[in-house]
Amino acid sequence: MVAAADGKPYLVTMTDPVHVVGAGLAGSEAAWQIAEAGVPVVLHEMRPCRMTEAHRTGGFAELVCSNSLRGDDPLYNAVGLLHEEMRRLDSLVLRAAEAHRLPAGGALAVDREGFSSAVTAALAAHPRVRVVREEVTDLPPEDWGSVIIATGPLTSPALAEAIRARTGEESLAFFDAIAPIVHRDSIDMTIAWMQSRYGKGGGADYINCPLDRAQYEAFVAGLLAAEKVSFREWETTTPYFDGCLPIEVMASRGPDTLRFGPMKPVGLVDPRTGRRPFAVVQLRQDNALGTLWNMVGFQTKLKHAEQVRLFRTIPGLERAEFARLGGLHRNTFLNAPRLLDPLLRLKAALHLRFAGQITGVEGYVESAAIGLLAGRFAAAEAKGEEPSPPPPETAMGALLAHITGGADAETFQPMNINFGLFPPIECAAKGRERKRALAERALAAADAWAGRPHVLPKPREAA
Predict the structure, then answer these.
(1) Residues contacting residue 384 through CB under 8 Å, at least 6 positions apart
(2) Domain ranges across the chain
(3) Architecture in CATH for domain 2-171+333-462
(4) Residue 101 phi/psi, 5° resolution?
């Protein structure tokens, strides 16, 4: 033990420390995993010296939007499955969540202040963690050695600019517009058909959903009347990204705007009628597995319930199941499929890892899960071991595989965990039982990867 500059005892080992920048959920989880693996950590957090527009405290893992970590059933809910995998890997975030859990039915909701305080206290007390309260304004120098950048969607402007300059990616400091994603097997292909405009590309690269004049006019009227999500106060000063206007904003510019924009039918022929439709909604394959399809040009600020109601009026999507609904908010994230390797390292600078929402995952739990993996990868490397990603059949592995190569780099947008990211399973069951089969396979693979005995949990509702 020696005393650091802040006077706190700090356990020194023969291993150089890993530097973690950012103490949100991802950075906190990464630091915990590294320290628990026997490797020292320097955890850099700019708050409270420099605050963001959304945070209110200097506590680690502060929840700024919701106190819910979403569904907690490990056998029928993809988020609950991710919870379970993280619990089995001694996640600090899940440990603190359980300690400060609030009644919320099947969801994992927490007391925000108690949760943040527990994460902060655990890291502050850890003998292999040293906390440095300072803003990191540039990409760390190579003499820092291994670094994990986990600065989240509100990365400070100076560091965001340094990342942009290093990666060359223009994906920072504007409203990213997210289009809904539909599970392929929920699209009615007796109505929709496969075709590219004028047979370009592969000739059948898009799924097309046709609308006649009455259906189109009703859809536009529904868009204009639907409830929208209000911007947060700190989002209101950031302009729209001109290339990704919300579909309802386009519709407000005139009744035919969409028909001459993302819903234009030119170059397409409905095989059922032999004629060109009045308007068309196109879906483009969104992942290498072909299980998820993106509604082209349908980025939106509509409330989620309104999206489901309205988009199910589109012919062919009457029974659509959504892997992700549309959204629009200020965000800072990398084009991870293009820039990161399967161990979350920047391909152009392998000593730099990224974790959390900046990698293009959406949600508190997903951010913490990627932080957990980044921490484990960094710790293994520090100890001279060869890190290995979790199998893609697991929730963590499916999420990691998606952001580091499974997603289309040209259309990449932040993604939540969902069963559409998992490799298909040979199973005749549908619906809930298919989800259970995917979950049971995932937990068996996760336990094998972690080298621990396999235990199958009970559904939360039956526990």
Answers:
(1) none
(2) 2-171+333-462, 181-330
(3) 3-Layer(bba) Sandwich (3.50)
(4) -70, 145
pTM confidence score: 0.77
Measured CA to CA, the distance from residue 324 to residue 359 in angstroms comes to 17
Cβ atoms 4, 126 nearer than 8 A: no
Residues 424/289, Cβ–Cβ less than 8 Å:
yes
Residues 343, 347, 350, 352, CA torsion sign: negative
Q: Do domains 2-171+333-462 and 181-330 have the same CATH topology?
A: no
**Contacts of 168 by beta carbon, 8 Å cutoff, 6+ apart:** none
Rounded to the nearest 5 degrees, what angle is found at the Cα of 70, between the Cα atoms of 66 and 72?
145
Tens of pLDDT, residue by residue over 107-154, are 898 888 899 999 999 999 999 999 999 999 999 988 899 999 999 877
Residue 185's identity, in one-letter code, is D
**How far is C-alpha 436 from the chain's CA centre?**
22
Rounded CA gap, 219 and 314, in Å? 8
How far apart (Å, rounded) are the C-alpha atoms in residues 201 and 209? 19
Q: Considering only the top CATH level, what class is 181-330?
A: mainly beta
Give tens-digit pLDDT for 51-108. Answer: 565 567 889 999 876 778 999 999 999 999 999 999 999 999 999 999 999 877 788 9
- Measured distance CA(349)–CA(190) in Å, rounded: 49
